[in-house]
Amino acid sequence: MGFFGDGEKRQADNEALQAEVARIGALPVKQLAVEVMTKGFGPGGPAAGGVLARPSDIAGAFIPTESSHDLDQSQLDTLYQIAVEGLQALEHAGLVRFQLIIDAGTNDNYNLNYTATRLGTTAL
C-alpha cells in the first residue's frame, strides 16, 4: 500500500479495533471468559499448550489486525481492561492460574504470566 493509502488503512484498523472493543465490552462476564479462554488458551492462542503468557499477550489475541502498531492507545487500553476482567473470571473458576516470574539476575524485573490449569485444559 502506498503512502497515501496508509491513512485509510490506519483508519480501517482503528475502526475494526473499536468494533471489537464494543463487542467484547457488551458481553456478560461469563461469555467474555469463554472467549478469553478460547482465544488466549485454545489452539493458536498465546498461552496454548501450557505456555505461560502475559495478560497483555492474551488481550492481544483480540486485536483484529495483524499488528497493534498505529492503533489508538486508549482503545488498546480499554481492550486490555476488558480482557483481563475475563481472565480474572477464569482464574476464579479455577481454569487458569498465574505464575510470577522474577528475573534472578536483577530481582527487580517481575512478570505475571498465566497458563491453563488441568481443569482449564479439560474445559477447552
Write the SSE topology.
Blueprint: H1 6-25, H2 29-41, H3 55-60, H4 73-92, E1 96-102, E2 110-116, H5 118-123
Antiparallel strand pairs: 1-2
Helix pairs in contact: 1-4, 2-4
The total beta strand count reads 2
Low-confidence stretches: none
Helix content range: 40-55%
The best one-word shape is globular
Structural class: mainly alpha
Order of helices and strands: HHHHEEH
Major beta sheet summary: 2 strands, antiparallel
**Residues in β-strands, percent:** 5-15%
CATH topology: Arc Repressor Mutant, subunit A
Structural commentary:
The chain has a two-stranded antiparallel sheet. The chain has 124 residues and is mainly α. A hairpin with a 7-residue loop joins strand 1 and strand 2. The chain has one domain (3-123): Orthogonal Bundle (Arc Repressor Mutant, subunit A), CATH 1.10.10. The model has no long low-confidence stretch (mean pLDDT 90). It has helices at residues 6-25, 29-41, 55-60, 73-92, 118-123; strands spanning 96-102, 110-116. The longest helix has 20 residues, at 6-25. The relative contact order is 0.18. Helices cover 52% and strands 11% of the residues. It starts with 5 loop residues before the first helix and ends with a helix.
